[in-house]
Specification:
Strand order of the largest sheet of chain B: 4-5-6-7-8-9
Number of helices of chain B: 11
Largest interface: A-B, 40 and 34 residues
CATH architecture of chain A: Alpha-Beta Barrel
Order of helices and strands of chain B: EHEHHEEHEHHEHEHEHEHH
Number of strands of chain B: 9
CATH superfamily of chain A: Metal-dependent hydrolases
CATH superfamily of chain B: Metal-dependent hydrolases
Strand content of chain B: 15-25%
Radius of gyration of chain B: 16 Å
Oligomer: heterodimer
CATH class of chain B: Alpha Beta
Number of helices of chain A: 10
CATH class of chain A: Alpha Beta
Helix content of chain B: 40-55%
Number of domains of chain B: 1
Distance between the termini of chain B: 27 Å
Strand order of the largest sheet of chain A: 4-5-6-7-8-9
CATH topology of chain A: TIM Barrel
Chain lengths: 253, 254
């Protein structure tokens, strides 16, 4: 049953950039299989989602990608896992990726984002316009700055910036137009509204952090922001559609 | 999006913050947002007092309460670090509200909520039937939720709001466990981590009567917590209790 509080969102073509599917060893009861995820999306009028797999994030990148391929639904656009390994990238290229989610943390895939191990991987992602999702906690502000300086045409989507990010985030957004970020944790008082007033809506993407967070939070923020209809639609899904249209759908190395 | 229920909000602030820009944080801008979202009344604590200077912070709250008595209630914020200052502040600003609303921030003041400098304040709260909002955080040695049952049992007339309910999923579980063991502990829903299903857990374990809507406005966005409550799989009666009636009853407005 869709939530009546948000019926207006039925016309926004909501496209969620920050979603995971599958079982989780850490988040037990909150994890959702494909049907459960689609049902939760329906409650909040979310039509499509960019989805990665918990198995990729918590276990093995290749096995996780297989699980993601198995669990996909037409409403889900895959955000594959990727490693800085030429054979892995070659295998990924066969999937014609439009998006990846990088999890380099020491308890995850445990690699450096520096040029010496990861340069070839980022070369591929930039060359093919692959949307590259990464959380702030995984890359840090100095790491993100170095990555954007080396790969200024890489469409990075920074996830889970947190609400304390603006003194780092805003200068980087001004400097790197292909840097985008998601709204799942951009939750300070009237922060989204103030961002649109000062920077426009183009670099902000609707994200929920499903299945861990309820979409009611970021949808509530978007729905209650005193911004133009055009800005709201851009954040809701238009900006992500534009980014996806720019991806080159992978290809050979 | 606008709440169909006029909200009584137990957790708000007055002021700015050091680590990120404050947006639309003047009392007038806050009231405009409250009108937009249907927050009828907001209980505020001085952010300056939480971070740095209680006497000056509480003094900033006073004129706002006088100017907007129908929209704001005022917490008196206390700092245990200058011993004796807390009770002096409670006495100085006792006209803010009756029963007193007291705010403690053991996290920012870096002093344990069960430490001896807080004891006179807990005794004051017990003696005056005060409502005490305390910042809490998962397992924090200064303000972890599991520190509170002993305090609550020792001061049964104090009504203690566990600010943010421990924040994380595990923190919420600790806050629920604490509230199960002391009837004068309450959960405040303000916070930036919008866990799916958490409110349903809280209501199932505690009932709706001791769960309060808090926004943390103008620190955090009120709309996210309004959305969480109004879309939770709980009864409409429970939503009205959480969004409005529980806090109004505590502050004796109904």
């Amino acid at each position: 049953m869709p939530e009546s509080l948000f019926t207006e969102a039925a016309d926004w073509n909501l496209f969620d950039v920050n979603v995971r599917v599958g079982s989780s060893g850490i988040h037990g009861e909150l994890a959702l299989d494909t049907n459960g995820l689609l049902s939760e999306m329906d409650r909040f009028f979310i039509r499509r989602a960019l989805v990665s797999h918990w198995e990729s994030e918590e276990y093995d990148a290749a096995l996780g990608n297989e699980a993601l391929a198995r669990d996909l639904d037409p409403r889900m656009t895959p955000a594959w896992s990727v490693l800085p390994d030429s054979q892995f990238v070659a295998a990924l290229a066969l999937r014609k990726p439009v998006a990846v989610r990088i999890t380099p943390g020491t308890t995850q895939h445990n690699f450096s984002l520096a040029a010496w191990p990861s340069g070839e991987m980022f070369d591929y992602l930039q060359q093919h316009g692959v949307i590259t999702l990464i959380t702030v906690s995984d890359i840090g502000w100095p790491g993100l700055t170095m990555l954007l300086e080396r790969f200024p045409r890489l469409p990075v989507v920074l996830l889970e910036t947190g609400y304390r990010a603006d003194r780092h985030l805003l200068p980087l957004l001004e400097r790197f137009p292909l840097l985008h970020f998601d709204s799942a944790t951009y939750l300070a008082h009237r922060q989204l509204e103030a961002f649109v007033e000062s920077h426009g809506a183009e670099q902000l993407l609707f994200g929920t952090r499903l299945p861990l967070f309820t979409p009611a939070a970021s949808l509530g923020v978007l729905a209650s922001s005193r911004i133009s209809d055009a800005a709201r639609l851009a954040i809701a899904g238009g900006n992500l559609q534009r980014l996806l249209a720019s991806a080159h759908f992978g290809g050979a190395l | 999006m606008r709440s169909p229920i006029a909200i009584a909000d137990c957790h708000g602030h007055l002021g700015v913050h050091p680590d990120f820009p404050a947006y639309k944080a003047s009392p007038e801008e806050m009231i405009a947002v409250m009108d937009h979202l249907n927050i009828e009344i907001l209980a505020i604590t001085s952010t300056l007092a939480c971070y740095n200077d209680c006497p000056r912070g509480n003094a900033e709250v006073d004129p706002v309460l006088r100017q907007y008595p129908e929209r704001f209630l005022g917490y008196i914020t206390v700092n245990p670090n200058p011993p004796g200052q807390g009770v002096a502040e409670l006495q100085k600003w006792s006209h803010f509200h009756s029963p007193p609303l007291i705010k403690m921030h053991p996290g920012l003041h870096k002093y344990p909520v069960h430490g001896k400098h807080y004891l006179p304040i807990w005794e004051y709260a017990h003696a005056t039937d005060a409502v005490v909002l305390v910042h809490t955080w998962d397992s924090d040695p200064n303000c972890g939720p599991l520190l509170f049952p002993a305090i609550a049992r020792a001061h049964p007339h104090a009504r203690i709001l566990l600010g943010h309910s421990g924040v994380t999923w595990r923190g919420y579980m600790q806050a629920i466990e604490a509230a199960e063991s002391a009837d004068n502990l309450y959960l405040d829903l303000s916070g930036s981590q919008n866990h799916r299903l958490i409110l349903e857990h809280c209501v199932e374990r505690l009932g709706a009567e001791r769960i309060l809507f808090g926004s943390d406005l103008p620190f955090l966005e009120a709309a996210m917590t309004i959305g969480r409550v109004l879309t939770a799989r709980i009864s409409d009666t429970a939503k009205e209790q959480i969004l409005r009636n529980n806090f109004l009853r505590l502050v004796k407005k109904i």
